[in-house]
Please model this.
Amino acid sequence: MKICIRNGRVIDPASGLDAVQDVYIAAGKVVALGAAPADFHANCEVDATGLVVAPGLVDLSVRLREPGFEYMATLESEMHAAAVGGITSLACPPDTDPPLDEPGLVEMLKFRAKNSPGPRVYPVGALTWKLKGERLTEMAELSEAGCVAFSQADAPMVDTMVLLRAMEYAYTFGFPLWLRPQDYHLAKDGVVHDGIVSARYGLPAIPVPAETVALQTILLLVRETRARVHLCRLSSRAGVEMVRRAKADGLPVTCDVGIHHVHLSELDTADFNAHCHLVPPLRSQRDRDALRAALEDGTIDCICSDHAPVDANAKEKPFQEAEAGATGVELLLPLTLKWAAERGLGLADALDRVTRRPAAILGVDAGRIGVGRPADLCIFDPAASWTVSGKTLASLGKNSPYLGMEMPGRVRYTVIDGHLDYRSNHA
Amino acid sequence: MSANLQLTEDGRLRHLLTLEGLPQRILTQILDTAESFVSVGEREVKKVPLLRGKAVFNLFFENSTRTRTTFEIAAKRLSADVINLNIATSATNKGETLLDTVANLSAMQADMFVVRHASSGAPHLIARHVAPHISVVNAGDGRCAHPTQGLLDMYTIRHYKGGFHNLRVAIVGDVLHSRVARSQIHALTILGCPEVRVVAPRTLLPRDVESMGVHVHHKMATGIKDADVIIMLRLQNERMQGALLPSAGEYFKYWGLTEDKLKLARPDAIVMHPGPMNRGVEIDSGVADGKHSVILPQVTFGIAVRMAVMSMVAGSNT
Model:
């Protein structure tokens, strides 16, 4: 397959490239930028006039719901939705049923993903057996099966000794751990931030120390073990400050934030909108503002969708009984553009947070446009807007805090591994 | 929040889910209407025909005797047909969802749902999904709201104190877990009470409770000093020993209302309690039965207030 993408504004945050030029693709790679290579005869031409040609998005947390939660969504549906969102590489957390705690499950998932159209799928293995936080998984075997990192997803790690041992063992092989800092006891049964909304509506609260106490534990153990740790889904200003200091001290840590936390706060939960029941909880406006600033100054490395599609019944419940999470893959690009526009940042700055930076954390050759690199591209119309609805979302999860709202930026084409994987009807 | 959900387009009360955000005129209207119903209970024939032919479903997803009974009496005095469903032990235990249960009961020609649920916001969810002719009255949801209790407390205060504008009200005890306290705080604020205090150890107060417009006191000595109204909250048995409080004995010693402590309040102070009381835990028997106590009149007023609410929401559909 040879593709020529004509006349688009090519933006590659990694190299600083931002120019209108043609992109030539053959055999899964970008073979030339600007002028056509000799003897290049495209099978397919894409007119990208007025569109941005960006590296395909890299999303560090996408639940494909298989195995075990097919009633919520399927691997095919969510991989397609991810492609619709311009995502070309994704990491899936191990909180499936059963969890990704043995090589056979990971191989099966990789096999299923490989045989479906859509993004490249990088499984994150379970750190402990059944995610129970007690016994380490066979990390080396899981790595051979294709796991790129190890995580408890949102399952608690109650025993600090197991956490220490997990870091030591992972360090042995250089495996990264992806940990969401949350103290089990401080968070137990809570569903909202310990703030104004919790005071008013009596919803069980998760105080900020649930994040900072766990974060402190993780950072002290990283100092001790020098294990590589990626901190997932920061939610608080205090947490951001701790990560800033840890990075200044040279600890080998990176971190991300969920896209919804960049825009929403506890006030959005005030009408018992179960779509705003998220993990971690949406915190105060001060916390949200700190997350936005930390994303800009680089303390927070990247943004992920933390995609969690659920079936309609799971949200049609009282707030605290409703399933947590929001669908996200199709909102990652628009909400990232919205954040950047609101902060007065350019497109390259925006795209950097969802391409090169997460790719570096994932440790794969992705998130860049360059000759010889994989042809994974997200081609979008920055001027187009669309309205989020059950109909416009391709994901089977229609659970979004943004239902009925207008989003900036619409993906027109997604190129994965040199193939035109998705083409919007409006293109 | 939810103010729009609770009111009709022309500003009448359609559902009663929470007192937060309701206009003062609605609260005053409820209290005035209740006043006209108090005398009904004193008549030989304790009935008025306002809800004749209407079906009121008591949906109690959480057990309750007192609140359910007073709602039932109130509905019957309004001549409604009352159907009591103790759902805590039926359909939802068989896996039926809340909204399916409500849809099924709606199909039985219900006109009003009186809902108690262990989860905050459950009545809001139901109100968003019922047919336009059905009203929802919240009889207590999670730790969020118990609006009719809050209203009957306001009725009691107005009855004994004449109004709210010069009052110092102290709410003492487990505010953190109390839907009653939240409704009282909203009601007092809306009705113009200048000083609402909450008095409790730090463990029994929400972290940002001051954002609700109350003054925080940890000691009874300052908390009830010169108070005109003292509202004692119930302390649940399971919270008396553990990480929230070390013991019922220590709680009573520091926050229990005794005759001695009551001397700190205004000489004409009234003492209230939403019930059921734990004598010797949050309140001394001498105080509960003493001359400042208005605890039993509260119960009587509760029926009139619930009649007022039910007649108003039913009337909003005509």
